[in-house]
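Write out the 3D structure for:
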Amino acid sequence: MHASFSRAKAEYLVGAARAAADGHIDFEALPALGPEEAEARLAALRGLGPWSRQYILLRACGFPDCVPAGDAGLAAALQRFHGLEDRPTPEAQRRLMQPYAPWRSLATAHLWASLG
């Protein structure tokens, strides 16, 4: 299997690895932090935008109330679930997911599963 990254993505990945190796971020400690603090630490890493941070908090940290707004699968599932004419924007996705708080991670997983 061969994965290719753009030069920028490769630099971001190397930067994240260096931050972990240098002790600037402890990825293993993130789940023990609150979600806001964990996201703030991830935000300090160049190249990790809101979607990436929320995805990491949801999948790697197991926080119960994350929404990776901007996710294509989430947009498709919300469009189908709500019978929307157009795919919801990231902001619309956040709005549509609000009723599921504080369990939006679980709702996201169910919405993703509905596509399969």
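The radius of gyration is 16 Å.
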